[in-house]
User: Which sequence fits this backbone?
């Protein structure tokens, strides 16, 4: 159960090597989270992430989880919930893909869609059912600003996040009044250290596992850039407020509200 301050005492991260997922886990451990499950493909990176969180005072377990193996989700994730209640599930897995390659290789595009949408729908429904059965908990899903409007530069990735975003909103409505809180998080371009990249005059790559590849946008010309730490801070704040939607940075809400209404011929020519 959440403590008297509303902080989750147990956390399940789907996408156990996600930079945003791990940054969020570190913040929550500092706020009294004591049990963490990291679900992901077995790898040295997953083991290192678990060791890092253990060093911060949490009891950490890893579990083999593959977003594409949807037939295993009910069994794999169900076992975690039999170990005890989970106060928060963070769905943080996903892949940005490679737009140019994916357009020429349909199977690669399908992998992006199956990972980011189909796999997330499967895992999200399994966890939502378990949270509802225990009568409490939060399901936090990392979407992306890329899903707000189709862009030539990343429409395959963006379409998968658009579907995930709508699914999460609908799931939140379905679970309203059950004791389960559902929150969708919409980051802009996520880079490890935005300030350093700006100073170098470079461009960034999308966050592996969440966020979104808006890497065609020069940092000096966009308010959309953020970092895993900033997204983690916004998630913690959103949990405390029981928000349903979180934009990171917050200015994105106004930016995207305006961009939605730009005529398509003009939007095609914009550097967004």
Assistant:
């Amino acid at each position: 159960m959440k403590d008297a301050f509303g902080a989750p005492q147990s956390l399940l991260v789907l996408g156990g090597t996600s930079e945003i997922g791990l940054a969020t886990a570190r913040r929550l451990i500092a706020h009294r989270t004591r049990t963490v499950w990291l679900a992901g493909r077995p790898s040295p990176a997953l083991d290192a992430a678990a060791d890092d969180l253990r060093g911060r005072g949490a009891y950490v377990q890893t579990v083999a989880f593959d977003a594409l193996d949807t037939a295993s989700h009910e069994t794999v994730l169900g076992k975690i919930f039999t170990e005890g209640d989970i106060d928060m599930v963070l769905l943080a897995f996903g892949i940005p893909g490679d737009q140019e390659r994916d357009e020429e290789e349909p199977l690669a595009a399908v992998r992006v869609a199956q990972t980011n949408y189909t796999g997330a729908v499967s895992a999200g429904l399994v966890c939502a059912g378990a949270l509802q059965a225990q009568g409490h908990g939060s399901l936090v899903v990392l979407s992306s600003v890329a899903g707000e409007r189709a862009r030539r530069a990343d429409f395959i990735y963006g379409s998968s996040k658009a579907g995930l975003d709508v699914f999460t909103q609908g799931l939140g409505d379905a679970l309203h009044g059950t004791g389960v809180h559902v929150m969708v998080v919409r980051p802009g371009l996520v880079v490890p250290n935005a300030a350093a990249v700006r100073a170098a005059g470079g461009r960034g790559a999308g966050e592996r596992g969440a966020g979104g590849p808006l890497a065609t946008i020069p940092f000096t010309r966009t308010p959309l850039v953020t970092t895993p730490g900033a997204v983690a801070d916004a998630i913690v704040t959103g949990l405390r407020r029981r928000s349903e939607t979180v934009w990171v940075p917050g200015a994105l809400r106004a930016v995207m509200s305006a961009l939605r209404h730009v005529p398509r011929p003009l939007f095609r020519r914009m550097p967004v």
